[in-house]
Amino acid sequence: xxxxxxxxxGNLLSVYHALQVAGAExxxxxxxxxxxxxxxxxxxxxxxxxxCMRALRSRGFSDALTLEVCRRGKPxxxxxxxxQAMAAxxxxxxxxxxxxxxxxxxxRLEPDFPGCRIPHIGWNEAVWKNGSVxxxxxxxxxxxxxxxxxxxxxxxxxDVEAISDYGGTFTAAVRKNNIFATQFxxxxxxxxxxxxxxxFVQWNP
Amino acid sequence: xxKRRLIPKxxxxxxxxxxMRQPVLVTTVNFARVIEIGDPVSQAKIYEAQAADxxxxxxLDATSQWRCAMVEVVRKAAEEVxxxxxxxxxxxxxxxxxxxxxxxxxxxxxxxAAVLDPTLIRKAADSYGSQCxxxxxxxxxxxxxxYLVWTHGGKVKTDWSPAAWALEGQRLGAGEILLTSIDRDxxxxxxxxxxxxxxxxxxxxxxxxxxxxxxxxxxxxxFQLGKADAVAAGTFFCFKDENPMQTRSQxxxxxxxxxxxx
Lengths: 205, 262
What we know:
Largest interface: A-B, 37 and 37 residues
Number of helices of chain B: 10
Structural class of chain A: alpha/beta
CATH class of chain A: Alpha Beta
Shape of chain B: globular
Distance between the termini of chain B: 17 Å
Oligomer: heterodimer
Strand order of the largest sheet of chain B: 1-4-5-6-7-10-11-12
């Protein structure tokens, strides 16, 4: 059972339907107690970083997820803001601490190319690390749907699973042990996105 | 590299079919003449099969009375279509945002309500993030006069120039501009690239140009001359024996970055 974390931010319905098409049984976790019955998780998210962390903490998900993911080793997939929440801190509208699962900062996209608009909205190519589990059966460079103004800058290159380019390279996906996360929206990326989700669902780190 | 986007626009009106009120897919000409096409969700699925990059759903009746029927369309689309979509038409409050977003919309378009109360843009951006706030701007140029923004489905003239209103929308937190020419709507004469260019030069958020596409070359003009990030079209994709996939190849042949496959 894949638990989708509902902390009031994110397009849960689309993630839910996409997981079903990807062959998973999914449920929505509205309380920390719901996490125990799930074997893996998806942490979606749209909106602002500060509100996201505040909601994760006030609903008790922050500690409960850290226990299930970092101690019990259950796989998790962070999407967009859900990925950024896993960083040590974010500089969106101030400086705020995140879950700290990745040694990384969330910083604003600063394309050094005229005509690159912010937010970065649309289909862009993700270039995957050789043999990335999430990209099994997906061309090494393939288009996914992005919508964001900030991205995760990793201090450890080994965490970076895919990169993309928007007036400069930025992190498109990360992985560390049982934790996977994508800046793009697999649930909105048609065939390749559904394939990435089905790879995640079958992944046993 | 970020690809240019091709966005089929699905406009809907409520019709009585077999004693039941149902949303029907329509196209319009100059925001006035309405032509009925069919079922919005089936058409959305066809567009997905043809590798559209995004979809826009617009409720032309835009009355709270029929809101439930439209929400049902959004809900069904979210079950069956795995690409991003914007929903607009009659959005007046944060409660409307919440309803549409929680039923599967990725972005919500504000039009008339934003002109009447510009702080709605800021409130929506603060609550749900700029990325889901689309400022929809309908414009028209009377003979030799200036371009002006019109509201209430093209019925009420305002004092705003489209570029100034887009800039103000950006300042208030809009994440994208959807620009529609009332004069070109449904005419297949091509986009008003001059005005599109004015707006893309005024703002740094993405601009979606629409109104007037009748040939693949019109999309290319929107990207190359108008500097649009995306081009949306209703009539073009509904009627012509063209589909997003063929149009896409022609855009790529013009040297523009565009997605070719799903």
